[in-house]
């Protein structure tokens, strides 16, 4: 794509595409997201996107400067799908727990796009909304500004890292996922106690746990550490 992006008020296509739809930023992003999930990163080309929309590929230049610009819009839309359904309650631990789990679930709903976008900074509306909301929860809980930023950073990076990890696993063929899960039962659970006592002692737990994501457990550990840190801050203030 190029630098021919036009202002939003001038973008709307007056005539429908061949499929009878009117182009919009939202439609292009949704179509791009669908293509990524169906075909992977290589699907995000102007030609393929134009074909899916039933539009001349050159018309996409009116909305996005290049494919990376579009990728950032896709990343921001994934954030938006989480933020649109989340409402803080005033209980900071419950609010961050709910938001973290929603972020993770949202990524797993679009694993290929999540892998591509988890490390990007969009600077767009939904990302800004998320940063503001999370910092608001932390500052409202009583964290000083520097601590609020430190915990925000850890919270978001943890969620995004697990989103990328678990999404990459989901993007594997089912046969590969099942074969990897079976390794815990076929290999680890059969290791003898005389050579691998710790694995042997915990084998049944490994088989049960390692097939799923550890994000919920990791999130609880982070939130527990944050709560302990807030208690320390409160105690110091009272001294």
What can you see in these coordinates?
It is built from ten helices and no strands. Helix content is 66%, strand content 0%. The chain folds into two domains: 58 residues, Arc Repressor Mutant, subunit A, CATH 1.10.10.60; 164 residues, Tetracycline Repressor, domain 2 (Orthogonal Bundle), CATH 1.10.357.10. The relative contact order is 0.09. Helix 4 runs parallel beside helix 7 and helix 5 packs across helix 7. By secondary structure, it is mostly helical.
Short structural description:
This protein is mainly α. It has helices at residues 25-39, 46-53, 67-83, 92-109, 111-117, 125-141, 145-170, 174-186, 197-209, 215-238.
Q: Domain count, please report it.
A: 2
How would you sum up the major sheet? none
- CATH fold title of the largest domain: Tetracycline Repressor, domain 2
* CATH architecture designation of the largest domain: Orthogonal Bundle
Q: What string gives the helices and strands in order?
A: HHHHHHHHHH
Euclidean distance between termini CA atoms: 60 Å
CATH-level-4 superfamily name of the largest domain = Tetracycline Repressor, domain 2
Percent of residues in helices comes to 55-70%
Oligomer: single chain
Number of helices: 10
Radius of gyration: 22 Å
CATH class of the largest domain: Mainly Alpha
Low-confidence stretches: none
Overall shape: it is flat
Question: How many β-strands, per DSSP?
Answer: 0
Structural class of the helix and strand makeup?
A: mainly alpha
Question: How much β-strand is present in the residues?
Answer: under 5%
| Average residue pLDDT | 90
